Structure formats: structure tokens, C-alpha cells
Amino acid sequence: MMQTIDDLAVEGLRVLVRADLNVPMDGGRVADDGRIRASLPTLAVLKDRGARIVVCAHLGRPGGRPDPRYSLAPVAVRLAGLLGGEVEFAADTTGPAARAAVAALRPGGVVLLENLRFDAAETSKDDAQRGRFADQLAGLADLYVSDGFGAVHRKHASVYDVALRLPHAAGYLVQAEVAALGRLTAGIRRPYLVVLGGAKVTDKFGAFGSLLGAADRILVGGAMAFPFLAAQGHPTGTSLLAADQVDAAAVCLDKAAPGQIELPSDLVVAAEVAAAAPHRVVAADAIPAGQMGLDIGPQTAARFAAALGEAATVFWNGPMGVFELAPYAAGTRAVASAITEGTAFTVAGGGDTGAAIRALGLAEEAFGHVSTGGGASLEFIQGTALPGLAVLEAP
Ligand code: 3PG
Ligand code: MG
Hints:
Elements: E1 14-18, E2 25-26, E3 29-30, H1 34-38, H2 40-48, E4 52-56, H3 73-83, E5 88-90, H4 96-103, E6 110-113, H5 127-138, E7 143-146, E8 168-170, H6 172-181, E9 192-196, H7 201-214, E10 217-220, H8 225-231, H9 246-255, E11 261-262, E12 266-270, E13 279-283, E14 292-296, H10 298-309, E15 313-317, H11 330-341, E16 345-349, H12 351-359, E17 369-371, H13 375-381, H14 387-393
Parallel strand pairs: 1-4, 1-7, 4-6, 5-6, 7-8, 9-10, 9-15, 10-11, 15-16, 16-17
Antiparallel strand pairs: 2-3, 12-13, 12-14
Helix pairs in contact: 7-9, 8-9, 10-11
The structure holds 3-phosphoglyceric acid (3PG) and magnesium ion.
Magnesium ion binds near residues 200, 350, 351, 374 and 375.
């Protein structure tokens, strides 16, 4: 059984909270604070109960060494504003700054450690190396609370190993995510449609085979579409193509029932990722040389919307295009609107998907659930054991 924070006596104790504060940044500014907000219920309750709170998290993929572009310092400022009260920022992860900040914590006080991925040990595949880092993290606290749902599919020191070293519990976000996403693992109402897009393509191909077994139809947009188009022998121009996934795409096409995978038939293309770049709609099988697909086209958007109108269950992971730039937002908007207009049980998942919903001014309440996890929600609904959740089950 997974303990929750309601099972823990925390007053006066140092509680290490693993949060997912991996938010989109725009030139040192937090571009979307959805994941910070999602971490508030747990932090507010721990604060109320007089815990000494040590928050740890990652930002981006800095590659195991300090890189100021990936500092969590701006996140500490936003967290303080949202939580109300001060949030101390430690300029290292487990070094002298972190130890001093933790030692100075008063009951109800909060410190945020610098990006965990500034240390290569956090994500290391070597158990001993991760273990040593987890020892240092565990040394900063008496208890461990896992609330970074978006990272529970990663066997990382702060997600997995530290839970082996401290009494632990799931935070409210992890609890809520597990409850909501559980509805996509059994007794699914059909037709069940999955919409896949976004930029982190490799992660999603790992899930595709199992999704083919579960979903009636899979609608593919975003950068996810290019390996499929390439597998069909079509040119992809300068599109963001995960070339190492073309074979995997071919296998998926082979394995799928006729019509089960729906690909874009038209795309919005431009020579560069820029709002001001001249852009036009072309057939998806004829992306011109020197041009890149930046959104699904209107015909595809209408087709996807019609399909979604008939769904009883929808899981949506990943935007259809570069929604951050107005000329390439229409596909994502059309798909999101179609999902929320129906009567289906709908789940949207992923850091960028949530950000797109908010950036386009759509109501999060219109979805059955908006998950903070992209890869994590995708792996969860396959029914596989996620390292960061499995470790919480053990006492
Ligand atoms: C995410 O954004 O999906 C999570 O924060 C995990 O990040 P990662 O894919 O870089 O491990
Ligand atoms: Mg993600």
C-alpha cells in the first residue's frame, strides 16, 4: 500500500519533496506555471503542519553539469509568489549551499534546491553512482514525499533511490494522478481514441505498440508524424524528424489494423520556426525541400475533430504543432476544442500539452483530467510498473 502524507507525522521534521517543476521557460522567465501550481496542495499542507520543507526538482536536460540556462532560480521566485511566503533557493543540489539552507530551515519554511540534473548521478544508469547521490539527498531530510508525477517513470536518484533510504509517502498530486489515470487502464468505454503529438518522439514510440493493442484509433500529429511519413517514403524536408524512429514507425504501420493509425494529410509548412516566416498549407506527402511542417493543416484538423466527436474515451498527449506561435496553433486548438466539446471521458497529458491548453485559453475543467505527466502518463496507462510509484508501495 502506498502511504500518503496524511499518514505521516511531519511537524518539525525535514521533509524532502520531489516535485516536477520542469516548466517551459522563455528567456529566463517561467512561461507556464502549471506544474508549479500542481505542486502547491502538498507543499501548502506540509507548511501548515510545520514541516521543514526541502523541495527538489529538475529543469530540462542539462546533461549532468551546471548550466545557468537550466537554473531553477526563477522557479523559486514563482513558487514563493504562489505559495505565499519565502522560498529560500540553494545554489547547489547537495553541496554546502543546500546543507546550510536546510540547517537554517524553521518549521513551515521552504527551500528549493538547484536543478538535480546538474549532477550526472541523478540520471545515471549506474546504481552505485545514483545511490551515492541518493545518500546525499537523504542526508538532507528525515522523510521523503514523492509528488513529481511527471518524473515517476524515471529511475532517477531523487525519484527512486531516495525512497529506499527514507520513510516515504505519495503527495497529493501523485495520488490524484494515479486515481484519474487509473480510469484508462481498465474498463475503458469505446470508441477509445488516442491523440499523439509533441516533440519528445522517441519516448512515445516505446508506447506505441501497447497503444495499438488498447486504442481503437490513434491520431498522430506534431513531430510524431514525421517518422511515419518518412516510413511511407514521403519527403519530410527540414522537419524535426527523429530519423532513428522511422523503422519503429514502419513496424507500427505494419502492425496496425487498417485505418487504426491516422496521419496528417496536410500540413502548415515554413522555412523556419518563426511567426513571421511565410507559411502555407501543403499535402503531407509533398513537403517541399527546405520547408518544415509546423502544424497539421485544416483538412487534417477537421478530420481529427470529426473522429474525436464520436469518441467515448480520449487520451491526448502532445500538441499538434508549434502552438506557441500563432500561425501554427490552429491544429492544436482544433483538436483541443473537439476533445472538450464531446461527452467523452478525456485525459490530456504532458508538460507541453497542459501549457498549450492554458496558452490557448481553454478551460482545464473542460477535460476529465489534465495530467502533469507526459511520458509518465503514457507509461502509466500501458499498465507497466513505474519505478517511482513501485518504490512507494514498499514500506
Ligand atoms: C517531463 O517534462 O516529461 C518530465 O518533467 C520528465 O522530464 P524528462 O522527459 O526530461 O525526464
Ligand atoms: Mg514530457
